[in-house]
Amino acid sequence: xxxxxxxxxITVLTGCMYPQERKLENQLPPLQQVxxxxxxxxxxxxxxxxLPIATKEANTPIFEKYVIQFNQLVPKYLPYMPGAxxxxxxxxxFVLTNVEVQPTVKLLDLKMVEHIHxxxxxxxxxxxxxxxxxxxxxxxxxxxxxxxxxxxxAKDRDSxxxxxxxxxxxxxxxxxxxxxxxxQKDLSQIIQGVQGxxxxxxxxxxxxxxxxxxVPVKAFSYTLVENVPTLK
Length: 232
What we know:
By secondary structure, the chain is of the alpha+beta class. It has helices spanning 3-26, 30-48, 62-65, 110-130, 184-193, 207-210; strands at 92-97, 104-109, 135-140, 143-146, 159-161, 168-174, 179-181, 222-225, 228-231. It folds into two domains: 3-102, no CATH class; 111-231, no CATH class.
């Protein structure tokens, strides 16, 4: 076999193997992917004293604000983009929390964002056409269950599955027509496992990234009422 054919054969075999190799790498569990990106962030920050994040508008929700820019990390600090990342065809954004004290990598579930965006679009259209909101029932003052039939949405889309606990989290609507996810079940479960009292004035949603790989998305504010997280 000529040297040229040997080179061509090696090139073809390498090309066949590389996608599979990348595929296997990208199938790392979410925890390992987050840890890998965390290591890259730590190294990048130690060398540059800045964070590889996108610039967002000031009113962007805090848990959606600091999206990691992988083009600043690959390949020097990270050999490849993790498979879970949206940029790699995955269903998550990798974001940072606690950026002022200890930048920490977390996951933002884009499937949940898409679910809420679709219902929000339909609710907004309904309100424009009918000058009222598609209310099914009152959950508590200022928050409502949505009449999904009125906006043409299947009734089984009235909740999303929490990536944190596996709980079914209800999709609810505020008096202003804002659609979001009710995280009360997750927060209650997390609080049960927290050692000691919750500091007064703490944003209860911070408990989710503090105790899991994920940040809350499309969420409302909560307050503790007799140690029970309640929509504000």
